[in-house]
Design a protein that fits this description.
By secondary structure, the protein is of the alpha+beta class. The protein has three helices and five strands, in the order E-E-H-E-E-H-H-E. It has two domains: 2-60 and 126-138, OB fold (Dihydrolipoamide Acetyltransferase, E2P); 64-120, no CATH class.
């Protein structure tokens, strides 16, 4: 996935970017991001001469996004299962509602712990700044739409 954005802040090799094509946010339900743009952190591992206010292109591989999703979702789900099973094992007289309640509490605890771990120890799969964009129209190469004739003169 490639995205363009404007550099907000530079802290060593970490760059805070306000990105996103706001026209692409039409179907999004996140009103904060939709109105202000998506703010995220990227790495400058190519050591480009970046300055605040520049427009840059950022790339995040699909495999990296998949791994990040697993890192965020797997621990809380495992904690839910452990909470549910261990409650039934430790207190065999507990009802199913109590087990589910403990499991849900463990799920939220897992998300809380995951949030703070990722905040203190950032994931190695951060997006990477790939280049500085001088001409916004050449930022991301968009493939032209295929024009197809359906036999009735209508083209899509």
């Amino acid at each position: 996935m490639k995205e363009i954005g404007r550099i907000q802040m530079i802290n060593g090799d970490l760059v805070t970017i306000k990105g996103g094509e706001l026209s692409a946010c039409v179907g999004c339900s996140n009103s904060e991001c939709k109105g202000n743009g998506n703010i995220f952190t990227a790495k400058n591992s190519l050591h480009l001469p970046l300055q605040e206010g520049q427009t840059v292109e950022v790339e995040n591989k699909a495999s990296t996004s998949f791994i990040q999703g697993i890192e965020v979702l797997l621990p809380p789900v495992i904690l839910f299962i452990l909470g549910y099973v261990l409650t039934g094992t430790i207190v065999p007289t507990s009802s199913d509602d109590v087990r589910v309640g403990i499991g849900v509490a463990a799920l939220f605890l897992g998300f809380f712990i995951t949030y703070w771990i990722r905040k203190l120890i950032p994931s190695q799969g951060a997006p990477v700044v790939t280049r500085i964009v001088f001409n916004h129209s050449e930022a991301i190469a968009v493939e032209p739409k295929a024009i197809t004739d359906f036999g009735n003169g209508i083209q899509a």
